[in-house]
């Protein structure tokens, strides 16, 4: 399992617009081999920004890397940066290989 995360420092007052942008975009992830799950996470609020993270779970690092080279990736990111800046600085990418995964037992 591979987890890909991007952290965004969203400017104060731009949170609703940032969330709407993410919720309304067509990510094309459901068409990509190895995609497992996506979540947009809202974190702590600071003096000048609110922290958000996009959190994507992949079957493997290779699946994630293949997605970044795919037409689905280009379609999901077209127009990125074309609107007014909603966040401070560029997103910060973090990639993680799973070392241990625990899940709740069915039942």
Automatic annotation (TrEMBL):
Question: Which organism is this protein's natural source?
Answer: Paracraurococcus lichenis
Q: Which UniProt keywords apply?
A: Monooxygenase, Oxidoreductase
A Pfam family this chain is assigned to: ABM
Which Gene3D superfamilies does the record match to this protein?
Answer: 3.30.70.100
Q: What class of enzyme is it?
A: oxidoreductase
Q: Which EC numbers does the record give?
A: 1.14.-.-
Q: Could you tell me what this protein is called?
A: Antibiotic biosynthesis monooxygenase
InterPro entries xref list: ABM_dom, Dimeric_a/b-barrel, Heme-degrading_MO
Q: Does the keyword DNA repair apply?
A: no
Domain ABM: start-end pairs: 2-96
As recorded in UniProt, coiled-coil segments are none
In alphabetical order, the GO MF annotations are: monooxygenase activity
Q: Which PROSITE patterns match?
A: ABM
């Amino acid at each position: 399992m591979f987890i890909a995360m991007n952290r965004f420092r969203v400017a104060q007052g731009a949170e609703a617009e940032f969330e709407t942008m993410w919720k309304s975009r067509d990510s094309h992830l459901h068409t990509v081999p190895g995609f497992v799950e996506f979540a947009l996470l809202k974190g702590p609020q600071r003096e000048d920004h609110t922290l958000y993270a996009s959190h994507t779970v992949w079957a493997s690092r290779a699946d994630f890397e293949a997605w970044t080279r795919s037409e689905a990736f280009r379609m999901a990111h077209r127009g990125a940066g074309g609107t007014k800046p909603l966040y401070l600085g560029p997103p910060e990418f973090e990639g993680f290989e799973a070392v241990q995964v625990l899940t709740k037992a069915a039942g």
